[in-house]
Amino acid sequence: MARPDTLFRSAEMSLVQLYVPTEIGRETVSALGEVGLMQFRDLNEETSAFQRTFTKEIRRLDNVERQLRFFAAQMEKNNISVRPVPGNGQLAAAPSSAEIDTLNQRAEAMEARIIQLNNSYETLQKRWVELIEYRWVLREAGGFFDRAHHQADDIRRGSTDEPTAPLLEDIENLPQTPGAGQGELSFQTMNIGFVSGVIPRERIAAFERILWRTLRGNLYMNQSEIEEPMTDPATGEDVHKNVFVIFAHGKEILSKIRKISESLGADLYSVDEDANLRRDQLLEVNNRISDLRSVLDNTKNTLDAELRMIANDLAGWMVVIKKEKAVYQTLNRFNYDAARKYLVAEGWLPKSALPLIQNTLREVTDQARIQVPSIMNELKTSRTPPTYIKTNKFTEGFQTIINAYGTAKYQEVNPGLATIVTFPFLFAVMFGDIGHGFLMALAAAAMIYYEKNLIGKKVQELFDMAFFGRYIMLLMGVFSIYTGFIYNDIFSKPVTLFESAWEWPEHFEKGQPIEATKKDGYVYPFGIDWNWHPAENNLLFTNSYKMKLSIIMGWAHMTYSLCLSQYNHRFFRSRIDTIGNFIPGMLFLQSIFGYLVMCMIYKWTVDWVAIGKPAPSLLNMLINMFLSPGTIEDQLYPGQKPIQIILTLIAAVCIPWMLLLKPLWLRHEHNKHRAQGYRGIGEVSRVSALGDDDDDHLNSRPSEDSDAVGHAFLAEELHEEEEFDFSEEMIHQVIHTIEFCLNCVSHTASYLRLWALSLAHAQLSAVLWTMTIGLAFGPTGTLGVIMTVVLFAMWFTLTIAILVVMEGTSAMLHSLRLHWVEAMSKFFIGDGVPFEPFSFTLLLEEESAG
Amino acid sequence: MVLISFCRWSIFVGLFIVVAASVAAYIFAPKGENQTIWRSSLILAFAACYIMWALTLLAQLHPLIVPRRTDARPEGGFSSSQPAAAF
Asked: Does position B53 have pLDDT exceeding 80, yes or no?
C-alpha cells in the first residue's frame, strides 16, 4: 500500500483468490456482502443458470419472496400498512440458515392460512351480496305485483289475440283500481309466469332491447333502481344494479327470458307472488343476513389480525430474503476444488481493503468453530482491474458528473477532483450575481441542513435531482456570490463598497451628456467600479472585459487540463507520450493562445491614452500572425515582429512533431524487439519448417488435469500482447493531431460562452428589474403601496423561476459541456470498467430506487 | 489613502496573499482520507478567485473608455437609479 486511496486516482485493486471451506461458504459470502468491498468474478461463465450449484436454493427463495409479495398485496388490499425497517435494512447481519428455514416454513403456513381465510371470506361475501340482492327483489317485487295485477288482462290478450296490437298501454294512463275483482286473481290461474332478479344497471338498456326483439313484445317488464351500490366480492368494485320482474305468458317464453337474463349477467331470485309468503321470505332473509354479517365480521377480523401480525415483520423478512438470494447468486459464481472441500472464489477488491477482508474471513471461521481456515491469496494478473473511486456524500455528486461521461481508466487522473471547484466556478462566471447566488446557496444550505430527513425520499423528479446535487449547488451559489461581487451585481444593482475611481463633473446642464474623469493613480480595488453601472456605455465596457475574461479563463482551464495529461503519461510510464504528445501539444497551445493571453494582459497594463498611441486590436494581430507573418499594423511592444515569427514557427513545427514522432518511435521499438527474437503470442512464424508444431505448442493451454481443477481458470490469465500495426498507429495519431490542433482553436472559441451567458444573465436581470419592481418607485400614496407589493411579488417570483432556476439550469449545462468536451478531451481516456462490489447496502438501495 | 499607494502593487500583493493562503491550506488541511480533497479544492478555489479578481483589476487599470451618461441632474446629485456620487 504505497499510496492511500484518494479522489485523484481510482483505488489500487488486487485480484485475490479465496479458498473457503464448503460448510461456511454461505456465512462467508454473507459477511463479505455486509462489508461490500469485493467484486466476485464469475468462474462458471460457460455454465447456464440452471446447471449451477445453488439453483435449487435460489428457486426456494424465489418462492418465499413470492409469498412475501403476496402478503404485501393482501395488506394493500386490506389497507394495512407495512411497518418500515429502521435504517433501510441495516438490521440483523446475515441470518443463520436455520432462521431462513423457519422463515420459509412460516411463510408457507401463513400463505395457506391466508389463502383459506381469503377464500372463505370471498364465499361469505358472495352469499352476503346475494342475500342483499334477494332482499331488494323481495321488497321491490311487491309493488310490481300489485301493478301487474291490473295489467294481467292486457298481458294475456296482447300475447294471444292480436300480434299487431300494442302489448301494453301506458301504465299511468290506466285508472288505478286497487282491490278490483280481476286483480285479485292469481297469476297462476291466468297462466302468467314471471322472472325476477337483479342486473347491473349499465346492461339494462341492452337487456330490454334483446328481450323486446326476441319475444316480439310479449312481456311485461318492471324494474327499479337499487340506491346503494353492490360490492362485487371478486373484484371489490362497486356496481349499481337494478331489480326487475318480467311477466310473460307461456313456459317457453319464460325459459327464454331466463336464459337471456343469465347470459347478460343477471342474478335470478325466485319470489312468491303471494304477499304473505313474500313477507315470510323477507323475514327469513333478514335473519340470514344478520347471521352472515357476524360471521363475515369475524372472518375479516381474523384475516386482519393475521395480516397485521405479518405486517410487523414483513419488511425485515423481505430484506433477509433478498440478502439470502444475493448470497446464493454469488455462490453460484464460485468453483469447487478437486476434493470438493473448498469453494474457490476469485474477485477484485481495493488493496487497502485487504486486511479488512482477511479479518472478516477469520471472524467467520472463528464463529463457526471450524478447524480449517479460509485462505486468501493475491494473484498476479495482467487483466485490467475495475475502476473504483471512493466517494462520500460531498464528492458523490461531482463524481457522478464525470461518470455520466465515462468511467475513468484504471488509475488514470480522475477529473472529479478538479471538478469540485472548476464546475461551480465556471458556472458562477456565467451566473455572477450576489442576490441570485445567495438564493441558490440558501436553497442548497437548507437541503443540506435537512438532509437526514430528506435522504432516500422521493419527492418529485426535479427536486430529487437538486437534492442529489445539493453540495454542487452550494458551491455554485457561493462562487456566484463571489463573481457577483466581482461583476458588482446584486439583483442587477451595484454595491458601493469602495470609493469609486471615477468623478463626475460638478457643473453641467440637465440632459447634457457628461463624462467622468478617472482619479489619478487609483483603481477600484475589488470588482467592477459601480460608476459603470448607470453609464450609457456600460455594455461597451463589460462586453470587452467579459470577453477577455472568458478567453483567459478558458486558456487557464485548458492548460490545467493538458497538464493533467502529463500526470497520466508519467504514471503509466509512457515517455513517448510526454515527448510526442504532451510537449508539442503544450507548445502549440501556448505559442498561439498563451501568447494571446499574455498580449491581453500586457495591453491592459499600458496606459495607451497617456502615451498617445492607438491601442492595437489583438484579434487582428492574432490573425495577421498566421496569415501574413511579419506584418504588424499597430505595434504592441518593441521587438514584436521576431517574437511573433518565432512563435508561428514553433506552432508550425509542433504539428509534424506530434504527427510523426510517436508512431515512428513505436515502430522503431517494435523492430528492435523483433530483431532480438521476441514475438507476439498470436504471431506465427512462417519461416520455420516445423511451423505447425510450433503453433500447436504455443496455443495449447497448460494441461488442466495435471493441476488442481481450481487452477484451470488461471489459463485465461495468459498475457495477451496486442499486435503492433504501424498503419493503425499512424491513423490514430493523425486523427489525434488534427483533432488537437483544431480543438485548440474551437475550444478557445467555445469558452466565449462564458462571456455570452454572463452578459445575457446581467441584461435579463436588469430588464426584469425595470419592468417589474422598477415601475413601483414612481407613484406615491396608496397606489404606490399596492404597486410595490404586487410588483415585488411578481419580481421575486420571476427572479426565482426565470433567473435562478431557468438561467441556473442553462448555465449549469454549459458548464457541464465545458468540462466534458473542452477540458476532459485534453486528458481523459475513460475506457475503464466500473467496480461493482457485492454489497448488501448497494443491493437494497437499488431495490428501493427501482 | 492607503488604497491608492497600495494599488500599484496590488496585483502582486494579492498574488502573495493567495500563495500564502494556498500554502496554509496545504499545511493545515484536515488529515484523513479527505486531505487531498481539502488541499486541491481550497488551492484551486483560491487560484480561480485570484485570476478573476486580478483580471478585473487589470481591466480597469488604464481604461480606454470612460463612463458617460445623460440622465444626471445638476443639483441634488443623480437620478434615483444611481448611488450617491459624492464622497
From this structure: yes
